[in-house]
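Batch job 17 of 40 flagged for manual review because the log was empty.
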Amino acid sequence: MSWANAAVQGVLLGGLFALVATGLSLSFGVMRFVNLAHGDLAILAAYLAVSTTSALDVNPFVSLLVVVPPEAFAGAIWLNAAGILASVAALALDHVRGGGLRAKRPEASLT
């Protein structure tokens, strides 16, 4: 392994870590919650891309055509599941606090 190859691999791995850190920073900074799932999906996609490249002996960019669509689908499913879980948890918490599912809420007045 030459020094140039090591330098390129280091820059690419650093870019992947920076991408994951940026996603974590944005999710916490903007939405005020810690979402660690996107890092798992990013590392899983990188592992699947490397595995596909070595197993099928194809160009890494071709392996991305195989890996990215299922990963995007998995991310969408994960995001929807988290949203549904948060909604159910909010309804359950509202019910426990005495609001119930059909409780009449007082209307807000503008005065």
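Reviewer: the log was empty due to a logging misconfiguration, but the result itself is present. The mean pLDDT is 80. Unflagging and moving on to job 18.
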